[in-house]
């Protein structure tokens, strides 16, 4: 914003908490601030508060699933059941390896992508492995090969816990709620373990750290115990 900060038609309000979008006949006509308490009229309102705050702000404005809004005492202005639904993020899990190399250097050096066993090979890849570390972990140098889903099928949701704009929304990522995602992530972990057993990795290994046994149940348990996300949430306010 530096080059345009001084424009006469631009006002930047940092640290202002937005309560809701003001509607008239289902059309946005401004925004209501909670702190400081103020209503700002506008011919055009662009809502860009991210995949978590945007649906929460819409629902506080009366735009969203009518039954859920009514349960919170929010008058429904526009019944859009999809607001807050369809939340997606990339699940991933690491396969760690204690190594003898130094921890200085870039943390994420390489990435590979490929198609899972049941993916359409004419489409984009749906699995990814990326290298992480090495990082200092309790005095040991530990690197990881991390398996991830580029195109998860599982979906979560964002809901309101309260009409209070200061109350954070309830976020349910819904990770791995579709069994196909679990199996594809297990496939990715098997590939990562196979790569770590190759000579170049064995040569720098310090007491090789494996992630569970080879049994299917062991890998299934490992996935559920270690799954995390890229923090790339999307989908909760899909347009159209």
Q: Which descriptors would you attach to this protein?
A:
single chain; alpha+beta; 5 helices; 28% strand
What does this structure look like?
- The protein is α+β, with helices and mostly antiparallel strands.
- It is built from five helices and twelve strands.
- A hairpin with a 2-residue loop joins strand 2 (27-35) and strand 3.
Biggest β-sheet strands, sense, barrel: 5 strands, antiparallel
Overall strand count? 12
Q: Give the overall shape, derived from the CA principal axes.
A: elongated
Average pLDDT over all residues: 91
Structural class, by secondary structure, is alpha+beta
Amino-to-carboxy terminus distance: 30 Å
Helix content: 10-25%
Element string (H = helix, E = strand): EEEHEHEEEEEEEHHHE
Our estimate of the beta-strand percent is 25-35%
Oligomer: single chain
| Low-confidence sequence ranges | 208-213
Rg (CA only): 23 Å
- Order of adjacent strands in the largest pleated sheet: 7-8-9-6-12
Number of helices: 5
Topology:
Layout: E1 17-24, E2 27-35, E3 38-41, H1 50-60, E4 63-64, H2 66-71, E5 78-79, E6 91-98, E7 111-114, E8 127-137, E9 140-149, E10 157-159, E11 170-172, H3 179-196, H4 199-202, H5 216-226, E12 228-229
Parallel strand pairs: 4-5
Antiparallel strand pairs: 1-2, 2-3, 6-9, 6-12, 7-8, 8-9, 10-11
Provide a compact summary of the structure.
This protein is an alpha+beta fold.
């Amino acid at each position: 914003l530096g080059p345009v900060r001084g424009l006469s038609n631009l006002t930047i309000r940092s640290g202002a908490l937005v309560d809701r979008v003001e509607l008239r006949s289902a059309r946005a006509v401004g925004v209501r601030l909670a702190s400081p308490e103020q209503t700002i009229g506008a011919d055009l309102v662009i809502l860009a508060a991210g995949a978590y705050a945007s649906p929460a702000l819409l629902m506080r404005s009366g735009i969203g699933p009518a039954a859920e809004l009514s349960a919170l005492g929010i008058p429904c202005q526009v019944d859009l059941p999809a607001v807050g639904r369809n939340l997606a993020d990339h699940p991933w899990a690491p396969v760690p390896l204690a190594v003898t190399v130094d921890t200085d250097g870039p943390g994420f050096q390489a990435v590979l992508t490929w198609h899972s066993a049941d993916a359409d090979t004419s489409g984009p890849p749906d699995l990814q492995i990326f290298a992480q570390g090495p990082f200092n972990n309790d005095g040991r140098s530990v690197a990881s090969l991390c398996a991830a889903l580029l195109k998860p099928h599982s979906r979560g949701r964002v809901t309101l816990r309260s009409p209070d704009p200061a109350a954070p929304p309830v976020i349910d990522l819904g990770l791995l709620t579709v069994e196909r995602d679990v199996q594809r992530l297990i496939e990715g972990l098997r590939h990562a373990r196979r790569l770590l057993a190759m000579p170049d990795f064995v040569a720098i290994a310090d007491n090789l750290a494996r992630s569970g046994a080879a049994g299917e149940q062991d890998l299934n348990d490992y996935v559920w115990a270690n799954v995390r996300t890229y923090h790339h949430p999307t989908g909760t306010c899909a347009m159209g």
